[in-house]
Specification:
85% helix, 0% strand, 164 residues
C-alpha cells in the first residue's frame, strides 16, 4: 500500500502545494511589517490546504479501497475463516491508512518548522490543530472503513463515502 503510485502522486502534489505556499508567503514577508502575521497565514494555509484537503481525500480513498478490495478480489471469505478476531482484523485495516497519513504528515515537518522560526503561532494552538487533524483523519478513515466494508464495488462505496 505504501509503494503504490497513488501515494507518491499524493505526496508529490502535497509537497508541491506546500512549496508554492511557502514561496508565496515568503515573497509577501517584505510587504508585511509583522513576521508573526506571515507565520500565522502560512500555518493556516498549510493546515487548511495541505492537510485537510489532501490528507482527507487520500485517507478516505485508501480506507475505502483497503476494505472493498478484499471483497472484489474474493479474499473476504478467506479472511472470515482465518484465525483472526474481527476486532484484530479491523484494527489492522485501520492501522495501514493511518500510518501512511502520519508518514506523509511527518514528511511535512520542515515546512512547519518555518512557523516556529518566524513566530506567531503559540505551541498550544499548534498542538490544538494537530489534535484536531488527528481526530479528523481518524474519523474519515473510520467512515471509509465502515462504508468500504458494506459494499463490494469500490466505485459505489467511494460515492457513498463522499456523500457522507
Amino acid at each position: 500500500m505504501l509503494r503504490q503510485k497513488r501515494v507518491f502522486i499524493l505526496a508529490g502534489a502535497l509537497y508541491s502545494v506546500l512549496v508554492i505556499s511557502v514561496s508565496v508567503h515568503w515573497a509577501r514577508i517584505a510587504e508585511m511589517a509583522d513576521r508573526a502575521s506571515v507565520s500565522r497565514a502560512l500555518f493556516y494555509t498549510l493546515v487548511a490546504v495541505g492537510y485537510f484537503i489532501f490528507l482527507t481525500f487520500h485517507a478516505l480513498q485508501s480506507s475505502i479501497r483497503i476494505m472493498s478490495y478484499e471483497m472484489e478480489a474474493g479474499t473476504a471469505t478467506l479472511l472470515k475463516a482465518a484465525p483472526l478476531s474481527s476486532i484484530s482484523f479491523v484494527f489492522q485495516k485501520l492501522l495501514t491508512p493511518l500510518a501512511i497519513e502520519w508518514l506523509i504528515f511527518i514528511g511535512s515537518l520542515p515546512f512547519l518548522s518555518l512557523v516556529f522560526i518566524l513566530g506567531g503561532v503559540p505551541p498550544d494552538e499548534f498542538f490544538y490543530q494537530i489534535a484536531n487533524l488527528a481526530i479528523w483523519l481518524n474519523t474519515v478513515i473510520l467512515i471509509g472503513l465502515f462504508v468500504g466494508s458494506r459494499g463490494a464495488d469500490t466505485l459505489k462505496t467511494t460515492r457513498t463515502a463522499w456523500a457522507l
